[in-house]
Each structure stands twice: as structure tokens, then as C-alpha cells.
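INFO batch 0412 | record 1 of 1 | parsing
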Amino acid sequence: MLLAENRQDLQRMLDKVSSYARQWRFELTPKKSAVVVFGKRQPPRCVKWKLGASEIPQVSQYKYLGIDLTRTLRWQPYLKRILSKARKNMTQALAMGISGGFLTTRQANIIWKSLVRSIVEYGSEIWGEGHFVELEKLQIEMGKRILRRGRMTSEVVKGELGWEGIKHEEMMRLRYWAKLVRMGEERIAKVIYKTSKARLEQEEREGIEQTKTWCRYARDLLQLNLGEAWSTENVGTEQDWKKLIRERLHQREQIKWRTQCLARPKLRTYCT
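INFO prediction complete | emitting C-alpha cells
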């Protein structure tokens, strides 16, 4: 993956890649290469990109490391694909003995996390932002199948299985944020993070509407009594930070779950 600010820089990078391939005598595969011009404005189609002697296409969407990147960085195509894949895996998981009640709840939970939830959570530290209704429905549907109780409410399903909402990406994002903070200053990811953070702080000082970015969402998540970490970037060791954010997120989800249970009259006996 090559990142460049303009057309000339990117073409120079492609030329360097071609020169390196010739020097070390290996072949490039143009069919597996493409150019994505990110931005809200529609890029010109007349531009031609060269990778060695071959021309590579300019596309609006490309699959990189298993994640579909669109020109405008919208995640709907990727979410649609992983939801479809997760449903297929859920069908396979149910056929392993869950539907027939041949597995314990603990065993069924392990299969769910291994075969289905792992697909949903892949790369969520990057794309996970907002409330994903379809993914929540998928989890509740699976929970009802595991408990073999089709008329249970979502609150009871979560309570019986000890599940939280599809918000695990928040913990993964905060863990990745701490990883960015620990990175060396020469890393590309660290440079992008610092640039985005500086722009966010400038918008805050000037009192203008803040751009919705990955950096802004990470800052908002740190409001879980972790606001000082944003300014000081003191995250401690990896294990300490992981334990801290797990506790804070669990406390928030537990309060939210109890509030939802108390708000439903049908669950008055369950609350007791």
C-alpha cells in the first residue's frame, strides 16, 4: 500500500517499485493492483497509472488486508459483506449441535465467539463507530438460539449469557490508540495521528465545527473518566491499559443494561 498527497508523488512511488522489482528480478502482478483516489470530489477518469510496463486501473473501492476501502471512506459495503459472511457462519455454528441442544451454553458461546463474532470484530478498531443495528440483531438472534428461548427480550439474553452490546470495537479502538501513542515518531501511522490530533485541537480552539474523524471518536471515548489520558498520553503498560479500559467499558455497559431492564415493566420479576 502506497500513500501520496498528489498524482506526481504516487507515480514516482510506482516507478520506484518497478525499478526495485527489476533490480531484484521478480515480477509484479498488475491484476492485483489498483489506485484509489480518496476524497469527496470525483477524481478525473482520464488519468492513467503505470506500474512498470502495465497500466493499472483507478477504482472507487478496493479490498486491502480484508477490509473494503471506498473512495469516501464509507463502511457500508464492508459491513454488508461481513454481515452476510457472519450469517453464513452462524448457520454452520448452529448445525454443530447448538440448535439441537447438544452443547452446553459455555461451548456454544465459544463457537459463537470463534466463528461468528470474530468476523464481525475484525478491523473494528478502524471502522467501528456508531450503532450497528443489524449486527446487534444478529447477536440477539444467536443468543436466543443458544438459550433455546425464542421469546426472550434482548436484555434477558444479554443478562443470561453475560454478553455486552456489539461495542467491543470501542475497547479495540482505545487499545489501538494507546499503540499509536507508543509508536516511534517516524512511523506513518503516528504522523497521521499527530496531524489529525493537531487539526482537532485547532478546531476546538477556534470554536468551529469539528470534523468527524477517527481521532475525534477516540477522544470522545476517552471521556470514560480517562480524559486526562488524551492530553497527557500517559497510557502505562499494555496490560495495565487493557485492564483499565475493560473495567471502564464494562461499568458503562452494566449501568446501561440495568437501566434498560428497569425501564421495561415486563422484566420486573427478572430485575428482582
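INFO post-check: The mean pLDDT is 85.
INFO record closed
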